[in-house]
Design brief:
By secondary structure, this protein is mostly helical. The chain contains seven helices and four strands. It folds into two domains: 70 residues, no CATH class; 47 residues. The strands form two sheets. Strands 1-2 form a two-stranded parallel sheet.
Amino acid sequence: MPSTFAIAIWHVHIPIEIEQEIKAKGPAQGVPDVINLMQGWLIVQKPSTIHSFPGLHPGEAAAISLAIEQSARLLIDEKAGRKVAATYGVAVVGTVGILEELAERRLINLSEAFDQLKATNFRFPSVALDTILKLFEEQRSKAP
C-alpha cells in the first residue's frame, strides 16, 4: 500500500484476532508494516459477542461480529466471509474497492497502488486490476 494511504480520514476498527494474524504474518517483501502504517487511526478492539459462523476462521468471525455490533462497513476479500456478512446486512467492500475510493478522493495514485498490490501475494487477477484501472482513468478523464 502506498504511504499516502495513512491519511487519518477514517478510523479502522479491527478485532484482536486480525491484529494477531497481521503481526504473525509480518510484512511481505516490499510491503509496509500495516499495523505501523495505520498508527493513529487503527483501533483494535474486541467485539462484545463473537458470533459463530461455520466455515469461517476466528478472525473473519470476529471482524463480522464487530461490523454487526458497530453497524459498520466491513473490509473483507474472502468470498465466504462476504457472503455471511451480507446475510447479516453488513455492507462489505474489498481491498480493490477501498483503493478505488481513495483514488476517487485523490488520496492515492490508483496505478501505483495496483502496481504495489500486484507485487504482493494478494489473489486478484492482474488483468482485472488493469481493466479496473483503465475504466477508472476513462471516468476521470470525462469528469469536469
